[in-house]
Amino acid sequence: MTAHDPQLPDLSPRTSVLGGGASPEPPTAEGPFDPLRLCIFTTIALLAWLLTPPLVVVWMSTLALVAYGKAHRAGLTRSRCYLRDVRLVLLYLSLAWVAGVVFTVREVVGWIS
């Protein structure tokens, strides 16, 4: 058996079709990870609220709150999010979460009664 034997499984590392094969880079000296995408996703969910249930806002803002909370505890003070200050981003995400919960509960109560 040789290394090119068709009977042997190919164990060479594969690159991701979606990710382009680049491995995630460790945090750099510029600071902790900024979960900007989750802030963007929450904004998209708020805009999509016109067509979808507010539960999507609760789900996305929960993910973003957890990620930004971890990043803030790790030392992140400035975000690439439009609001820049991580405390403002956390406030925005918290307000989105509360609004999503209120309107989700309101819809559920409307279904029950």
Spatial separation of the terminal alpha carbons: 72 Å
List the helices and strands in order: HHH
Outline, from the CA principal axes? Answer: elongated
- Strand segment count: 0
Classify the helix fraction into a percent range. Answer: 40-55%
Mean pLDDT: 79
Number of helices: 3
Beta-strand proportion: under 5%
Class inferred from helices and paired strands = mainly alpha
Tell me about the largest β-sheet. Answer: none
Low-confidence stretches: none
Global Rg? 21 Å
Describe the structure.
With 113 residues, the protein is an all-alpha fold. It is 52% helix and 0% strand. The protein contains 3 helices and no strands. Helix 1 runs antiparallel to helix 2 and helix 2 packs antiparallel against helix 3. The longest helix is centred in the last third of the chain and has 27 residues.
Secondary structure: elements and pairs:
Layout: H1 36-48, H2 55-73, H3 86-112
Helix pairs in contact: 1-2, 2-3
